[in-house]
Write a structure and sequence with these properties.
The chain contains 5 helices and 11 strands; from the N terminus they run E-H-E-E-E-H-E-E-E-E-H-E-E-E-H-H. By secondary structure, the protein is mainly beta.
Length: 287
């Protein structure tokens, strides 16, 4: 691209915008474990249920997205819970961390259109040496996630049931539940959130490679702003080193909340999207 752009673009040039939003040729780790039931219930919004309340499942991924359709390549990681709304089982993202050239555009598009709780971080690494693989995330000086796996077999046979379409040439579809919201300043000067929508983000994943792996270690450094460590590993179930392409099929509103009911949902959403600097009075000057 050469020359200077413009703050006006003809409408017909905008039609490729997120049409579709695709994360192509993503390579890295997918991990699953059982976490503390009390923690899972506390952080999950009340209209969502845990399919197995005594054994809540956490999933996380750390990938290098080499060919997104909407930005230069970037690194992305996410942590989410398996949950249910009405009769539909899906997932609920608690937070995603992004880094690299395409990260700002991926953050903005994901948050504005799908409600994904995305943040930028300092460093994401995923690497493989033979049958060993390692991934970590560093945010605000903390290593909020660090995982080691050995490729070959899962920790637990349940992983076969949890990932039925995950195989070379296979395909998986499914929804995740997210929230979009409207903010407004009330007469008392405080920010309120008078309208919330529960949405489903439906996506399709095509797998080029999927190699089962055993989790050998997961460590998460406590962090005020990025508390992945809250989702402690009670039982590691397994991991996979995979290469896939994921595309968004649709984003649909399935429930609307207003007034105090909507505002009461923000405590579940804040940390995944914002830092505590937004609610802290007084800041040291920066150099």
């Amino acid at each position: 691209m050469t020359g200077n752009g413009s703050f006006y673009i003809p409408r017909e040039r905008i039609y490729p915008f997120l049409n579709p939003a695709s994360m192509n040729n993503a390579e890295g780790l997918q991990l699953t474990w059982v976490t503390d039931p009390a923690v899972a219930r506390r952080v999950l919004p009340p209209m969502l249920e845990l399919p197995d309340p005594e054994h809540p499942l956490v999933m996380a991924y750390v990938v290098n997205i080499r060919e997104p359709s909407f930005a230069p390549g970037y690194m992305e990681s996410g942590i989410y819970l398996v949950c249910r709304h009405a009769k539909t089982t899906g997932t609920y993202f608690l937070n995603l961390q992004l880094n690299g050239p395409g990260a700002p555009m991926a953050l903005c598009s994901g948050r504005e259109f799908a409600g994904l709780p995305k943040k930028l971080c300092e460093r994401i690494v995923v690497e493989r040496n033979g049958d060993s693989a390692h991934a970590f995330i560093e945010a605000k000086g903390k290593r909020i996630f660090d995982a080691q796996v050995e490729i070959g077999a899962y920790n637990h046979p349940m992983m076969e049931q949890l990932n039925p379409g995950a195989k070379p040439g296979g395909q998986a579809t499914g929804p995740c539940f997210l929230f979009t919201y409207e903010g407004d300043q009330a007469p008392d000067g405080l920010m309120r959130f008078p309208t919330m929508h529960l949405v489903t983000y439906d996506s399709t994943t095509d797998y080029k490679a999927w190699e089962p792996a055993r989790i050998t270690s997961i460590t998460m450094e406590p962090s005020l702003d990025d508390p992945w460590a809250e989702l402690t590993v009670v039982t590691p179930l397994g991991a996979a080193y995979n290469i896939n392409s994921n595309r968004v099929s649709s984003v649909s509103r399935i429930a609307r909340f207003e007034g105090d009911e909507a505002d009461a949902l923000m405590p579940y959403l804040f940390t995944g999207r914002w830092d505590h600097s937004m609610i802290t009075v007084g800041h040291p000057s920066s150099n």
